[in-house]
Amino acid sequence: MGFLRLSMNHPLAFFSDKLRKPLFLAFFTGTVILFAVFRPLGEPLTTPAAPSGIVSFELACTPTNAQTMIDSWDTHARLYAAFGLGFDFLFMPIYALTLSFASLLAAGRHPGWFANLGAWMGYCSFVAAIFDGVENIGLWNSLLGHAESVWPAISFWCATVKFSVILLGILYGVIGWLWPKK
Description:
Elements: H1 17-42, H2 54-58, H3 63-72, H4 75-109, H5 113-146, H6 151-178
Helix pairs in contact: 1-4, 4-5, 4-6, 5-6
């Protein structure tokens, strides 16, 4: 783990210890609320061609798959997709801050390599949000009639990186809290 030997500060380390947990809880609450808002926005997007709604569209990868999903949505569903993509730009910084604060709190429980990994995870949380933004630009372009281009592939790879980093961040936070404190 040579890359973990590189010592770095967590991007949110400047927050005092007494503010970290309340800020995490505030951003976590915001994440849960916004996630709940996405549930009804995604319902019209669930079709046989897009069984997981917008997530299916994010992972369509090929122009044919993306266009098939778009064609399976009526005008109403396409408006929901467009609104959801715009609304996601509000969600991105909220979940990135939630994950970053979670990694900061978990890192604070364990010194050494685990804390250093937490600093990396703190930065990666924001990287996930950047990939999410690029993914949404690709999805938006596909919705606007450019699905027969490279946009579905760009969206796929950005979504893959985003989901991977988010899952790793959640895993890191859970391990950091469940692992007995030294």
